[in-house]
Design brief:
The structure is a single chain. This protein has helices at 38-41, 68-71, 115-119, 161-180; strands spanning 2-3, 33-35, 45-46, 60-62, 77-79, 87-90, 122-126, 132-138, 144-145. Strands 1, 2, 7 and 8 form a four-stranded antiparallel β-sheet that branches. Strands 4-6-5 form a three-stranded antiparallel β-sheet, with no helix packed on it. A two-stranded antiparallel ribbon has the order 3-9. The longest helix has 20 residues, at 161-180. The protein is globular and about 45 Å long. 18% of the residues lie in helices and 17% in strands.
Length: 181
């Protein structure tokens, strides 16, 4: 867990709390972000080489200010029309079009892959009534399974190097997202 610096970039752990309330919107790409828990996920791991095909229907992804010098060499940068004017990398000109990923889920060679994409399937969750952020993983059959040899926890329930690396990357990403806001 990490102390939150301001507002989290997403709230996948939050539930509407009221019956009949609209479901909270999930961040781009995420379907079931779930806090990593050694007791529940001791056998769970990341599928090796799950690829980037999860991006094939997206023509823009959020970027952080710190990565703009790399992004501008490969993608046009635009700003979302919402009140935040979030910077985004354009990867296609039409809806549901990503010109940088092929049918095998491979990114165009020698092109920078935005951090938002590299972070997937991990994300921080702001837990309700708390000042902490929790590392979550998207529980998606295309990305994680119990047969994987890339486990999130060892047999003693301690985070593996994979989980530790994901935590550090999410910390860096979160800090950069806060600066960009």
């Amino acid at each position: 867990m990490v102390k939150k610096q301001a507002a989290a970039d997403s709230k996948p752990g939050a539930t509407g709390g009221q019956a009949g309330a609209p479901a909270p919107s999930l961040p781009l790409f995420y379907k079931r972000p779930t806090p990593l828990d050694a007791a529940k996920h001791v056998n769970l791991g990341l599928k090796k080489g799950f690829g980037l095909s999860f991006t094939n229907q997206v023509n823009a992804v959020p970027i952080n200010m710190i990565e703009m010098p790399q992004v501008c060499h490969f993608y046009p940068i635009a700003f979302s029309p919402d009140g935040n004017a979030t910077p985004v990398a354009l990867m296609g000109l039409r809806d549901n079009e990503n010109l940088f990923v092929n049918a095998k889920g491979e990114w165009e060679p020698n092109c920078y892959v935005p951090a938002y994409i590299r972070r997937y399937p991990f994300i921080f969750s702001e837990m309700p009534d708390s000042d902490r952020l929790t590392l979550c993983v998207d529980i998606n059959d295309n990305v994680v399974d119990e047969k994987s040899d890339q486990k999130f926890f060892d047999k003693d329930g301690k985070p593996t190097q994979l989980a530790q690396n994901a935590l550090e990357f999410c910390k860096s990403y979160h800090a950069a997202a806060q600066q960009t806001q």
